[in-house]
Amino acid sequence: xxxxxxxxxxxxxxxxxxxxxxxxxxxxxxxxxxxxxxxxxxxxxxxxxxxxxxxxxxxxxxxxxxxxxxxxxxxxxxxxxxxxxxxxxxxxxxxxxxxxxxxxxxxxxxxxxxxxxxxxxxxxxxxxxxxxxxxxxxxxxxxxxxxxxxxxxxxxxxxxxxxxxxxxxxx
Length: 171
Hints:
Layout: H1 4-7, E1 11-12, E2 16-19, H2 26-45, H3 52-76, E3 80-84, E4 89-93, E5 97-102, E6 106-113, E7 116-123, E8 131-133, H4 142-163
Antiparallel strand pairs: 1-2, 2-3, 3-4, 4-5, 6-7, 7-8
Helix pairs in contact: 2-3
């Protein structure tokens, strides 16, 4: 089982803090991609027992499935947020770094969706218009509460301290 630093690929050195909020999904995603790749020969093997329309629908669904997972693997998982202490700026890096805000503009909040919630950051006056998810989803179960406490202690508190936001750190 991954600890919180591995789950978020959390790295802290003297000048910056880096986190990858989606990194923990990579193993899950790779397994689903392998299942998708293994499904194609199965679909092809049974093509003679299917009508042409059924075969086309199965291949079409397979294509949508693979595009969705490849999109996540290429464009969602590698997103890194860099909190640069020397320049007092926050960057979002996919393949190129882009400044998203200064430290003094940042606020954090809990974003709730369908019985789950996650931590987000955004600019103080725009946080509900444009925000960035910086944690996994939490549900309120015992295991989720334990993961949330670990996230707050090991990831969120160091980020907030670096940015200069007062923290009531749990003991």
